[in-house]
Amino acid sequence: AKAAGKDRHELFDPRLRREQAERIRTVERLRVALEADEFTVHYQPIVALRSGASVGFEALVRWTPPGQDPIGPDKFIPAAEDSGLIVGLGEWVLRRACAEAAVWHRRYGTTIAVNVSPRQLAEPYFADRVRRALADSDLPAHALTVEITEGVLVRSGAHAELALTHLAELRADGVRVAIDDFGTGYSSLAYLRDLPIDILKIDKSFMPDDPGDAQQAALVRAVVDLARSLNLTTVAEGVETAHHAELLRTLGCDRGQGWLFGRPGPPTAVSIRLAAETTV
Ligand code: C2E
Ligand code: CA
Ligand code: CA
Ligand code: CA
């Protein structure tokens, strides 16, 4: 009775109703956009901190409605997630990224990381779809990383079970699994040991905003040490300054991603970057 009362209240709250209407409009536009091919994938380099080489790229979706500036994923992923549209959009991103990355992989050995939403992981045929994308693009499984957030695995229930099954199957094929935004969720540290993961991406909020702050640095060290003790590859996100990179190198973090190394860009920018790196 209490829940019903709350629902009724929300239904008549004008602000919530406006937001709901806005959501529905966004979802309608996204549906059309998917049909009309208005999405693209941008790629951001993931750099080996020791050598400076771009060892991989993260695929980040962009939406450009005709005649408008590109819209960032933070503006539409939540609506796509709520509505279930993320399943189709996510698969489109996966297939596009695998196809584009296959060329870079053949030539330079680079890997590709693709974000996978909880809704996708809970789909009954998710692992098969990934296998199909790999086969169709001729990309070897070991060149693909799927990035997931920890919440989806730590939760219990049928969806988490299914997600774990998919990940185990994909890892058996050689696909890498990364935990995204590590440290922002309700991280249960003991759980980390048992999760089917290979890579830990340290959230950008851990990057010190003050180079002299020993406490901030100690926190980064704690996370890097934790990941290393679990034999996970560490990737720091939000590497914006030379100081960040220096600190991470000192702490033994494996890889970095951020504006210091390069912003997300179109596939042509990736080809140019990779060609330039091999000639120097
Ligand atoms: P994320 O997976 O954590 O991706 C990293 C985000 O950090 C990207 O934002 C990237 O542009 C931004 N970033 C990179 N370097 C820096 C830096 O040095 N400083 C700062 N402040 N930010 C940096 P973007 O492209 O706007 O994507 C936002 C989020 O949208 C992603 O966060 C991811 O959760 C989601 N997303 C993007 N593409 C997809 C997709 O294809 N599928 C799904 N399910 N989610 C996606
Ligand atoms: Ca990510
Ligand atoms: Ca992240
Ligand atoms: Ca994020």
From TrEMBL:
<protein>
    <submittedName>
        <fullName>Bifunctional diguanylate cyclase/phosphodiesterase</fullName>
    </submittedName>
</protein>
<feature type="domain" description="EAL">
    <location>
        <begin position="23"/>
        <end position="278"/>
    </location>
</feature>
